[in-house]
Amino acid sequence: MKRRREQQIRLHNLELLVHEAGSAAQLARLVRTNSSYLSQIRHRMPTPRGTPRGVGDQLAAKLERGMGKPEGWMDHPHLADNPESTEDSTQHDEDSLVTEKRQHSNFRSLHPLISWVQAGDWSALAKGRAMPHGTALIPCPIKCSVKSFVLHTQGASMEPKFHDGDMIFVDPKVEPEHGHYVIVRFKDATEAILRQLIVEGERRYLKALNPDWPERIIEITETATICGVVVFKGEAM
């Protein structure tokens, strides 16, 4: 159990270094290691013995030296926006140390930037945990659940509130309520869509904000599944 805890901390810190370097490939160049090796560790690929790959002592030391961290940095939990902090955590959720509930108000968790196709089936994909190589991890400016994900908005259906290319953080754990902006998947559709949820009595509707959009309001039926609620938006520049 102790060894697993140590690996969780190192894997969490590896993701912080990837974010700090800008990408996994850039981190590999900075610390002079193989990028495919880092990918195997990040995605917990099995060793020949069948155990998940982890951050060994040699790699931990190389990451610390290459990124200018003090010796032992990889073995202590750190805040996403304050890497030098050594504040410990009491959270034992095995989903991810990234989403620990620390007593630090400016802690920001990291969440994957995914496609609209993936968003429609995120509940199933998230159970696998390992994301495709090169998946960007984005820090959420506000508190959100471990299951949250990030999307780039597309199209003009939700203008003027949302513009093409805006970044939105979506939390599947938030209960959708009237007025919320939600990600919805329709049974026969390839991609999910973004709409505003309208609740009137026992009936629920999806609204496109663009006044020129065809079928601006449609009623939710059994063919539609709400995949999550938008909890934060960042505008494209």
Task: Write structural notes for this entry.
This protein is α+β, with helices and mostly antiparallel strands and 237 residues long. It has two domains: 2-92, no CATH class; 116-234, Umud Fragment, subunit A (Ribbon). The chain has helices at residues 2-21, 24-31, 35-42, 57-66, 116-119, 122-125; strands at residues 110-112, 137-139, 149-152, 167-171, 181-186, 193-200, 203-207, 217-219, 224-234. The strands form two sheets. The protein has a seven-stranded antiparallel sheet with strand order 3-4-9-5-6-7-8, with no helix packed on it. A hairpin with a 2-residue loop joins strand 6 and strand 7. The longest helix has 20 residues, at 2-21. It starts with a helix and ends with a strand.
Short description:
By secondary structure, this protein is α+β, with helices and mostly antiparallel strands. The protein has six helices and nine strands.
Mean of all residue-level pLDDT scores: 81
Output the structural class.
alpha+beta
Unreliable stretches (pLDDT < 50, length at least 5) are 81-107
Number of domains: 2
Q: Largest sheet, order of strands side by side?
A: 3-4-9-5-6-7-8
The CATH architecture of the largest domain is: Ribbon
Distance between the termini: 46 Å
Counted beta strands: 9
What is the CATH C-level name of the largest domain? Answer: Mainly Beta
Secondary-structure element sequence?
Answer: HHHHEHHEEEEEEEE
Largest sheet descriptor = 7 strands, antiparallel
> Could you name the CATH homologous superfamily of the largest domain?
Umud Fragment, subunit A
Portion of residues within helices: 10-25%
Q: Sum up the overall morphology in one term.
A: elongated
Task: Indicate the CATH topology of the largest domain.
Answer: Umud Fragment, subunit A
Number of helices: 6
Strand portion:
15-25%
Radius of gyration: 20 Å
